[in-house]
TrEMBL record:
Residues 104-124 are annotated as: Disordered. Belongs to the low molecular weight phosphotyrosine protein phosphatase family. This is Low molecular weight protein arginine phosphatase. It comes from Pseudalkalibacillus berkeleyi. It holds the Pfam family LMWPc. The keyword Hydrolase applies.
Amino acid sequence: MNILFVCTGNTCRSPMAEALLKHFSDGTMNVRSVGIFASEGSPASQQSIQVLKEEGVELNHSSKPLTKDSMDWADLILTMTEGHKHAILSQFPTRKDDVFTLKEHVSEDDQSEPSLSSKDVSDPFGGPVDIYRQTFDELQALIRKLQKKYS
């Protein structure tokens, strides 16, 4: 299965999600990340790099924009927000069965979370490293659920 994570600029949340899933699956899952408004070739944010390094998670990242090729590659597209999901579906309406927010996808079988107050992963962009640590913790819990779902 090819999993594509999508956020806005592909420098914070989606690269962290990609790195975490690669880390937890020991590289056995095909994972990439892109951004709705990403430019080609930007590094991950310094705070993302720092938090992942503190946690022993390897990150080798260069930002990429969402393209038809990346959509064609993906079997499952997981977005960080509902806004990202809607933006993708407006461009690629035929992929409606493959696009979910990360939170809704990992929680759809979880009866303890029948309604999520927000289907969005918090955006740390521009914040201090402590905000990135909070987003890391949020993503780590979600990625562990994702891995269990497909293991």
